[in-house]
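My current task is to audit a protein record that another person submitted. Thanks in advance; the entry in question is below:
***
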Amino acid sequence: MTNMQNENLSLFNLTVSDFKKLIAHAFSEHFPKREKEKSLPKLLTMSEVMIHFSITKPTIYKWVKFNILPEPLKIGGLVYFRKEDVELMIANNK
């Protein structure tokens, strides 16, 4: 057989639907579904907290020092606050 004949040679007699099922099965074996990862907590930047409370950066540090604001997270040299913690602080101080 020539190369052209080899390229047109049919190996399987599959319908499109059967072919899709075959591919889906092959992918599911090699790439199993991962469990949904727990969603990461929403983080607020220092600027977002400043805007939300209409305060300055020094005031944020004072509020943290006096436990008015929760302790921030420091990631890669940047300061973040957990949104959940800030919302809880607001709810407790109403």
Observations:
- The chain has a mean pLDDT of 83.
- The beta strands are 43-45, 73-75, 78-82.
- Residues 43-92 form one domain.
- Helices lie at 3-7, 16-30, 46-53, 57-65, 83-92.
